[in-house]
Amino acid sequence: MKTDLIVGIQWGDEGKGKIVDMMAQNYDAVCRYQGGHNAGHTIWVDGIRYALHLIPSGVLNPKAINIIGNGVVVCPEALIKEMKQFENLQGRLFVSDKAHMILNHHIAIDNAKEKLRGDKAIGTTGRGIGPSYGSKIERSGHRLGELRDTKKLANSLIEFYDENRALFNALCIVTPNFDELKKELDDYASVLLPYLADTTEMVWGLLDDKKRVLLEGAQGTLLDIDHGTYPYVTSSSTISAGACIGLGLSPKDIGKVTGIAKAYCTRVGNGPFPTEDFGNEGQMLRDKGNEYGTSTGRPRRCGWFDAVACRYASRINGCDQLAIMKLDVLDGFDTIKICVAYEIDGKRVETLPQDLNNIKPIYESMTGWDSVVGCRKYEDLPQSAKDYIRKLEEVTGTKVGIISTSPDRKDTILL
Ligand code: IMP
Question: Which CATH number applies to 100-194?
Answer without folding.
Answer: 1.10.300.10
